[in-house]
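Q: Start with the shorter request: fold the first protein.
A: Done. Sequence, then structure:
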Amino acid sequence: MYIKAFRSVTLESDSCLDPGVPMNGHRHGSDFGIRSTVTFSCDPGYTLSDDEPLVCEGSHQWNHALPSCDALCGGYVRGKSGTVLSPGFPDFYPNSLNCTWTIEVSHGKGVQMIFHTFHLESSHDYLLVTEDGSFAEPVARLTGSVLPHAVKAGLFGNFTAQLRFISDFSISYEGFNITFSEYDLEPCDDPGVPAFSRRFGFRFGVGDTLTFACFPGYRLEGAAKLTCLGGGRRVWSAPLPRCVAECGARVEGSEGTLLSPNFPSNYDNNHECIYEIETEPGQGVQLRARSFQLCEGDTLKVYDGKDASSRPLGTFTKSDLLGLTLNSTSNHLWLEFNTNGSDTDRGFQLTYTKVRVLCVYDGKDASSRPLGTFTKSDLLGLTLNSTSNHLWLEFNTNGSDTDRGFQLTYTNLYETGRVGEEIAHSPALQYGDRKKRPVRMSRLLSTVRHFVEDASGMRDGRSAEQLDSGAAPGSPFLPPPLHRGAEVLDCEPQVGQAEINPLQAVSAQRGIRSRLSAV
C-alpha cells in the first residue's frame, strides 16, 4: 500500500496584476508593485471616466476598476486645437440624442473645423454649427454621408463656436470625427468718432469694444458700445451713434449744460422747447450763457421755479443774455425757447451750477417783490432800496462746503415832504453777545434787536417785529442825503453746519425806508 502525501505551496507576490489599457486611451506607469500608482489619458475627443490614479494595495488588488475613455454627448472644449466626436465613436451613436458642444479659442481668433469622418442618417439626424449661441440661423446644417467642407465660425467676437447634434429614434450610423483649430481674424475698420463726443478704446480687433460719450448738453442716439465682429464680415455690432442737441430737456444735478436744437448749427423754425433744471433742495440755480445768438422774434424766457407760472427772470433775444447771470430763489429753473417762421441763428449754449443764495424781498415776507437773488460775491458794490419800511431776507445753504458768509449794513431813510431835509437815523442791528463769538444762524432771528437813536440821544430797544410801522409800500419818496449809517447784519456759518434756512426781517420806524448794502 502506498500512501500519498500532499504539500500546500503558497506563492509569494509583492505586486498587482497588469490593470490593462482603456480603449482609445493610454496608460502611464509600468510598475505594478505594492503602493505603486499608474495613471491614464485618452485620445483627443474622448473623456476619461475616472481620473483618479490606480494604486496597488497590500491586498495585491488595485484600489478601483480600470477607467474608460468615452466620447460624450456634448461638453466644453477650450484650446488652440482639439477634437469633437459623436457619442460612442467609432461605434454607432445612440438614438434620440440632443448634444451641444462649445469650443473656445484664444482672444481675437476664429474657429476652423475640419471633418475627417461624417455619416449621419440623411435628413433625420443632423449637426448644426453656430457662432452666436443661437441655432435658429446656424452657420451650417449638416446631414447625410457626404464629407463636408471646412467650416469657419467664431466671427462674432466671443471666440467660440457651438455644435448641436440631433438624432431621431430610429437608424444610426458611425457619426462624426471633427478637429478644430484657431485662425487669425481680420480686424474691423476704424469706425470714426461722432461729432461732439469722446471715444474710449483704440483697438479694432475681433471682440474689441469701443464706447462713446457725448459732450455736456448732447444726447447719445444709438448704441454707446460697439463690438468688432470682424472675420469675413468686417463689421461692428451696431452703426456709429450720434450726439444730438434736442429741443428741450430735463436735467438734474449740481451742474450741467443746455443747448438749443442742432447747436452749434442753426436751430429750426417754429420751435417750442421746454428746459427744466433741478438741483438739490436748499440750493439755488445760477444760469449763464457761453453762447447766445438768436434772431429778432425768437426768444428765451426764464422763470424762477418749476413752471411758467413762476416769477419771470427775463425774456431774452439776439445776444441779450451774454454777460448776465441769473439766480433762482429755489432749486428749480424753467426755460421756454420759442422760434418763429422766419430767419434762424446759431442758438445758445447755457451752463448752470448750484449755488448758495441770499434772497432779498421788498416787504414783510417772501411773497413781496424780490429785489434780487445773490450768491458768491454778487452783492458787493450794490445798494438795494426798499419801497416800504420792510425788507425780508432768506439765506439758504446746503450740506456741503461753507464759506465766510456775509456782513450787510442797512440805513433807514426818513421820508419828509421837503426836499433835501437831512433826517437820518442809524439804528444798529446786532445779535448775540456783540459778536464776541459766532452764533448759529438758527439763533439769529430770535436775537435780533432794533435800536433807534432819536434826536435827544435816547435809545429804543424794541424787537424787529415790534417796529412794524405799517407805512404803505410804494409811497412817494425823495431820499435825503445819508447822515450816517452803521447797521450791521452778520452771517458767519460754521464749518460742518448744514441745512439752515433762517428768515431775517428788517423793519423800520413809520415813514422810514431801508437801504441795504454789503460791506
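Q: Next, the second protein, separately.
A: Sequence, then structure:
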Amino acid sequence: MTSPQVAVRSLNHIAVSVPNIKAVVKWYTEVLGFKLIGDRILRIKRSEDPSNAVFHIFGEGLNEVHMAYLATGNEDGFEVFEFVDPVYKANGVDFEYNRGGFFHICVTSSTASRCSQFHPCIPPRSTRRECATRAPQLPRRSTGLAFTAIENIGWKYYLLYGIFNFAFVPIIWYWYVETANLSLEPVDRMFEIKHAGGKKMDWEEATRLAKLDAPPTVESSSEMDEMVMANHVESVKD
C-alpha cells in the first residue's frame, strides 16, 4: 500500500534482452502495434562511439549492443536490447514463470532529488544523466531492479506555451476578429458557439452564426438617422 507522502511514479519503460532484435521488433510492431520510435534500430559500438551514454550505464564490459525504442498504446516505453559483445545468453527454457527478476524497469520521478531515494550511492541533487549512470551500480544481491529517474522538465513546456501565446495572440486576433469584422460581443458569442459545437463546429461556421446573432452595425450618421426615423414611424403606427 502506497503511503500518502510518497509520490506515485509513472512507469517510464521496461527493457528486454533478446537474441534477434529485428525479429522481435517486427513481431511487436506488426502483431501488437507498438510504434518503433525513430523508425530504426540503433547499432552502437564502443570503437566507433566510446562516449555514448549506454557505455556509461552498463560499464566497461559492454562493447557492442543493438537497441530499439518502442512505445505501447498507452505511451509506456518498451526497450529491446540485443547484446553483441558480450554475446546474448539464452535461459535454456522457453518459459520459466517461477524464475525471479527481469532486465530492468525505469520510472519517471517527479523531481531529480528523488533519485537518492532509490539508493544512497545516488547524490540527492543528481541530474538525469547521473541517475542513469549510477543506477546500474546497485548491488546485484540487493535488488533485481535498476531504477532510472528523470528530472521534471514540465516548466519548460509551460514557458514555451506562454511564449507561443504571447507571440501569436496578435496574429490570431487579426485572423479571427479583424478579418471576420466582429466586435467584442460577437467574438464572445463566436467562442460560445464553437465550444458548444465541439469538433464538428469549425471557426468559419461559428463566425457566421455569431454574425447572425449580432446587432446591425452602423457605419455613418445618415444610416443612424434612417434607423431612428424608421423606428419612430413604426412606433407611431403601433
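Q: Describe the second briefly.
A: Confidence is low (pLDDT under 50) at residues 121-153, 216-221, 231-238. Residues 154-178 form the longest helix (25 residues).
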